[in-house]
């Protein structure tokens, strides 16, 4: 089966301070999720975070405790598999929107980041490796 949209992760490196990040470099998506690269001003890091996820309508969100906010950093396995599938019909897939937050601490200041963009450490422009580090869905 051929899927038109597959997300790609690239290796970005700062030529001045040698900061490295494995990110998409902007808005990207696969079959079941859409992500955005963000810059966290407090962590001084670049992250890929979910903006939308397609999940089962009856899926339960995990409870997040204050001080332990750690959303999933894509790509991750979005579906749960089981050895013995149930006989009941599965709930339909629905899109769930998510706001941009730092995966380390929810209170950090974040903003969208796009290639070509500046290094979060020294401010120099980051360079992208031409070959994707990983293709994901």
Please provide a written account of the structure.
The chain is mainly β. The protein is built from no helices and nine strands. It is elongated.
What is the straight-line distance between the termini? 13 Å
The Cα radius of gyration reads 17 Å
- Percentage of residues in DSSP E strands: 25-35%
Mean pLDDT figure: 80
User: Helical region count?
Assistant: 0
**Number of E strands:** 9
Low-confidence stretches: 63-69, 76-80
- Elements, N to C (H/E): EEEEEEEEE
Shape: elongated
Content-based structural category = mainly beta
Helix content: under 10%
User: What profile does the largest beta sheet have?
Assistant: 5 strands, antiparallel
Keywords:
mainly beta; elongated; 5-stranded antiparallel sheet
Topology:
Layout: E1 7-13, E2 20-23, E3 27-29, E4 33-40, E5 45-56, E6 93-97, E7 110-112, E8 127-128, E9 134-136
Antiparallel strand pairs: 1-2, 1-8, 1-9, 3-4, 4-5, 4-7, 5-6
């Amino acid at each position: 089966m051929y899927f038109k949209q597959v997300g790609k992760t690239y290796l970005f490196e700062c030529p001045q301070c040698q900061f490295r990040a494995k990110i998409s470099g902007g808005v990207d998506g696969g079959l079941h999720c859409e992500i955005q690269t963000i810059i966290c001003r407090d962590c001084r890091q670049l992250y890929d975070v979910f903006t939308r996820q397609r999940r089962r309508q009856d899926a339960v969100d995990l409870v997040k405790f204050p001080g332990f906010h750690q959303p999933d950093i894509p790509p991750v396995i979005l579906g749960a598999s089981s050895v013995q599938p149930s006989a009941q019909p599965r709930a339909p897939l629905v899109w769930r929107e998510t706001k941009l937050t730092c995966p380390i601490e929810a209170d950090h200041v974040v903003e969208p980041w796009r290639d070509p963009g500046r290094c979060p450490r020294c401010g120099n422009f980051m360079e992208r490796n031409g070959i994707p580090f990983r293709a994901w869905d």
